[in-house]
Amino acid sequence: MVSCDRGNLDVQTGQEVLTEYRFNTNVAIHYFCKKCGIYTFHKMRKNPDKYAVNAGCLEGVDLSNLRPILIEGSKAYT
Q1: 5, 11, 40, 59: least buried by Cβ within 10 Å?
Q2: Quick check: 46 and 57 in contact, CB under 8 A?
């Protein structure tokens, strides 16, 4: 996952095959591909002006160059 501001997310292709899932407060909106089911991105509940994006869905991103942050519960490990 990588995050970005709402204004910096630009879905250039495939919008017609995205479906959304909302639960509980209906603030967070999770988007999935209707064809394969992959999670693509979501609007954050705690900060609705931000999106979390599945980095594997980004064209031109070398995942091996990303530094992961492991999260267990509320504690993050770098």
Answers
A1: 59
A2: no
Cα dihedral: 38, 43, 46, 47 (round 10): 140
1: tokens are 């996952």
Is the distance from CB of 3 to CB of 52 less than 8 angstroms? yes
Distance of CA 40 to the CA centre of its chain: 5
Query: DSSP 3-state assignment of 8?
Result: helix
Residue with tokens 């479906």: 19
- Which of the listed CATH numbers 3.30.1130.10, 3.80.10.10, 2.30.30.240, 2.170.150.70 matches domain 2-77? 2.170.150.70
- The pTM of this model reads 0.79
Residue type, 6: R
